[in-house]
Every structure is written in C-alpha cells, then in structure tokens.
Amino acid sequence: MNVDIALYESIKTSGIDLILSLPCILLKGILEEIEKRQEIQNISLTREEEGVGIAAGAYLGGKTPAILMQNSGLGNSINAIKSLLQLYNIPVIFIMSHRGVEGEKILAQIPMGKLTPSLLDLLNIKKFIINSLDDIKIIKKAVDLSRKTKNSVGILLKRNLWRE
Amino acid sequence: MIRYDAIKRIVDSLKDELIVCNLGAPSRELYNISNRDENFYMLGSMGLASSIALGIAISKPERKIICIDGDGSILMNLGSLCTIANIVPNNFILIVIDNSSYGSTGDQKTYTGNKTRLEVIAKGAGFNSIIVINEKEQIQPTLENLKKGCHFVLIKTQPGNADVKNLPLLPEDIKERFIKAIFQKN
Fold first, then answer.
1. In chain B, which residues have their Cβ closer than 8 Å to the Cβ of A60?
2. Residue of B83, B172, B182 lying closest to A60 (CB–CB)
3. Taking 60 as the threshold, does the pLDDT of residue B186 lie above it?
4. Is the pLDDT of residue B173 over 90?
5. Which of A19, A90, A100, A118 has the fewest CB atoms found within 10 Å of its own CB?
C-alpha cells in the first residue's frame, strides 16, 4: 500500500477531523491526498504557533485537530504548548516529519532534528515513532491516548517510511 | 477613551456571542465589566487570541465569535490576519483595541503609535470589511449593525489600564464553562 494513502486512512479513522498544516517535502504526498479527498478540512498556516492557537479553539468547539508540520515547527510552538495547551489541558495531535536525522542532506536541519525527541520528553509530550508502513496504525493509539489524558501527543514520521 | 471604555461598549452590544479575550489587562477588565460563561480568558500564549477565535469560528459556524485583541498582541501574530482573511469565516469579528502600547507590562510603546497602521495591514492581508472607530459612542451601534461575515474592527484608544482585580478563575474552570456555553445554546 502507498505510504501517503496509508497515513491518510489512519489519520481519518483515528477521528482527526481538522488538519492545520505547513509543508515539508516529505509531507508533499499526504498533503496532496488530503486536498484530493476533500473530507478533512485543511487550513494552511503562516507559522506553526498559529496552528496551536487554531487547534486549541477547534478543540473547544468539539473538533479533534492535528497539526501537520516539519519537526522544526515544534520549536516555533513551545510557549503556546506550555502556556495554552497544557495550562488549560487542551490536547492537540502533532504529526511531524522528522528531519535532520538519518540521511539528512541539509545541514541546517540537523540541530533541531537531533533535539526533537528529547524536546518532546521535556515538554511532557508522549512521542510515537513511525518508521514503517506497519507502524502507521499507532496513529489511532496516539489519538486515543491524547483524548484520554487531555495532553498532546507527538507523532514522528521518519524518512525511512517513504523508502520502503 | 481607554481600553476599559471600549470593552464596556463592546459588552453593551453583546447577546450570546462567544468571546476570546487577550491576556492580561484586557481579560481582567472584561472579567470585571461582565463575567460571562461565553468569555474565554487567555492567561498565556500572547499573540494567539485571533487564532483561538478562528478555531472556534470554523468548528461552530452557527455561533457568532468575537475576538478582543490588542495591538501588541496582533503584532506578534500578523500571519493570523492572512489566515483569517483567506479562510473568511462567516461568523467572525476581530476587534483590535489599539492603544499603541503594551498595556499589561507598563504601557511601553508599540509601533502603531509611530508608522504602523493595522487597518492597512488588515487590508493587505485580505480582509474585505475593515472598520476604524475613534469615538466610544460609535462602538455599540457599529457592532450591533454588523452583518454576518468576517470583520476587522480597529478601535483607537489612549493607553491606560483600569484599576481592577485579578482573575480568580483557574484555567480548567475557564475552559470547562466555556465549552458548556458553546454547546448549551445548540
């Protein structure tokens, strides 16, 4: 099965009904799939932190929002994660392409790429790693946990996923 | 007119609108003027008022949403103006009370007291409906006569905060009663 279609299906069946996104080259296929299906509203962001605000509002309004972005955007979202999401116990699903690690050719991606897993730990956000097609089913598990704990979760999509 | 006078006139125009209010002095003043379940008081994440309000507006299209933002705050999240103006929620009023200062931190000046014009930025961002208010008497009738749509309302005021008490509410309580208020009226 095509990775982007599998990701899309897993996002949809997990109950995510709003996507807030900024692109990454690794996310090109999944973003196209979302646009093509026209089942889940996708709002383009100007900056990731803005997405945290929109997601918080959408959660108050009854939605299950996810932010689809590159892991670099986690750095742009830190204060909002702490002083908005976790202060009010508002959960948001962060789905991130994990750049700056295995096989990265762009030097500037490396510092944030290396930091990302421990940054999630520091932020008290449980991380879920997707390395293969088989791992994609954990998206549902992550979303369920986020609902139950009212805390955000971080799903890291590894470059390997698209190399299978 | 200072911010407090503006918020008072905004409150006078309200029916069952949902409000997202910028943190610090604006939220304290709103709380002391009219503490409603339909008020979401921000406590942190400066700059994100309009984004939170947009999220509510798209998920509850049948409710009317008013965001009470400030010049310092919207300057931290100007991209939000582009997103709102392109999504064009049909139930959204973004009010920016522009006192050209960071009121909650001691009235330090912002750029809107010098060269920056927020109404021009809003136009460039793509807003079709932009209203600038300079007199407090204009606030209530203007808001009451606004048609359903996506509006940017700039209220120009002097710097200054009212002497009001702190919010006694916990974040979880603000959230829970706000969610209840959103869903009760359906």
1. 40, 52, 55-56, 59, 175, 178-179, 182
2. B182
3. no
4. yes
5. A118
Q: What is the mean pLDDT of residues A112-135?
A: 98
Quickly list DSSP for A101-146: STT---GGGHHHHHHHHHHHHHTT-EEEEE-SGGGGGHHHHHHHHH
Q: Are B173 and A87 in contact (CB under 8 A)?
A: no
Tell me what pLDDT residue B185 has: 61
- ipTM of the shown complex: 0.98
DSSP assignment string, A39-91: -SEEEE-SSHHHHHHHHHHHHHTT--EEEEEETHHHHTTHHHIIIIIIHHT--
Pair type for strands A93-97 and A126-130: unpaired
Q: Which residue has the tokens 């582009």?
A: B82
B110 and B100 Cβ atoms separated by less than 8 Å: yes
Q: How deeply is B138 buried, as exposed, middle or buried, from its count of CB atoms within 10 A (0-12, 13-18, 19+)?
A: middle
Between positions 56 and 95 of B, the ones with CB within 8 A of A are 56-60, 77, 79-80, 82-83, 86-87
- Of A95, A69, A91, residue with least CA distance to A145: A91
Q: What is the pLDDT of residues A30-72, one digit of tens each?
A: 999 999 999 999 999 999 999 999 999 999 999 999 999 999 9
Measured between alpha carbons, how far is B156 from B134 in angstroms, rounded to an integer?
A: 5
Please report the pLDDT score of residue B184 as a whole number: 84
pLDDT: is A1 or B23 the higher one? B23
User: Could you give the C-alpha distances from A50 to A53, A92, B135, B139, in angstroms and in order?
Assistant: 5, 13, 31, 28
CB-CB contact of A145 with A153 (8 Å):
yes
* Residue A138, both tokens: 């954990």
B3-12 vs B25-33: helix crossing angle, rounded to 10: 40
| Average pLDDT over chain A, rounded to an integer | 97
Whether B174 and A88 lie within 8 Å, measured CB to CB:
yes
